[in-house]
Design goal:
The structure is a homodimer of 146-residue chains. With 146 residues, chain A is mainly α. Chain A is 66% helix and 7% strand. Chain A contains six helices and two strands. A two-stranded antiparallel ribbon of chain A has the order 1-2. The interface between A and B is large, with 53 and 53 residues. Chain A binds a DNA duplex (30 and 30 nucleotides) through α1, α2 and α4.
Chain lengths: 146, 146
DNA sequence: CTTAGATAGTTCGCATGCGAAATAAATTGA
DNA sequence: TCAATTTATTTCGCATGCGAACTATCTAAG
């Protein structure tokens, strides 16, 4: 229970995420699809035509976060913004054919990442990790807090 | 062992890190010290006068990463760059008095974060998490790899 | 001694994503 | 109906950090 070890947890978490992100970006130099982008592709793969805000919520991104992500992916011709017919403020996001193809590739890439993420750990251990990561969302909430 | 769960690990890791970073930044609005900055403060607290490259290695940052971090922290008057007397290419980093104070505050902040990071988990569970995070560094290496 | 390489940092352009403020459209209330 | 508020998204300035290319210095080899 040395405090040293917990300090290290903060650091380890940061580094692990950075490594993963770099890795995923490096694995798709052709398509140029990054980790964040494949997240949105994934969301659209399951719910094509979601509102930007819904996509943001699914990815835990605030308005500026999605807005920028959508900008870049639109520029890359992976997705399309189409006005919501019922709400003049809102936009719905749709996969382009290229986006649909990129999504399929992304899924394949994720399979490899998945293997690396769990290799050498038992299901029970992975459950602990998943629980720890999940719990962090309530421990470090977005809004205000004591 | 549903693939769904592992997909979620990637996402959970990303979100957890983002939440933690946001949280730490929000907790020091006064000093403006961020998570990354407190990392460097910490390194200098233990080894004042390190080379930039050494600091980068300690924080798992590449040359551009430290260079920028040092720029911002120098501008914030937290650290100083001083030429290495023996090597005209190299710079050594030193805490300013303000930096030393900020480091002390950072440590206090980390105590709170530590508590939140481990609350509700046994030592054995935290060990699993730490091992998983550590292992990721070899699973997703920086350089080239198959 | 001089040149070829290695090494330490910097710079550039980029992706990511935040907080705060702005814009615009929808909704609610008097 | 029409102002006040809420909601969806954008924009701005910022911090973080990468890869690639550059600069400057140091080291090694002939």
């Amino acid at each position: 229970m040395s405090p040293r070890r917990e300090h290290r947890l903060v650091f380890l978490l940061t580094v692990a995420q950075r490594r993963l992100q770099r890795w995923m970006a490096a694995r798709s130099p052709h398509t140029g699809v990054t980790a964040a982008q494949s997240g949105l592709l994934f969301v659209l793969g399951q719910r094509d035509g979601v509102l930007m805000g819904e996509a943001g919520a699914a990815l835990d991104l605030g308005p500026p976060g999605i807005s920028g992500l959508v900008d870049r992916m639109t520029a890359a011709n992976l997705i399309e913004r189409r006005a919501d017919p019922d709400d003049g403020r809102a936009w719905r996001l749709w996969l382009t054919p290229a986006g649909r193809a990129a999504m399929a590739q992304s899924k394949a890439g994720l399979a490899d990442v998945n293997a690396r993420l769990t290799e050498g750990f038992t299901d029970a251990e992975i459950d602990v990790v998943a629980r720890w990561l999940t719990t962090m969302q309530s421990r470090f909430p977005k809004g205000e807090d004591e």
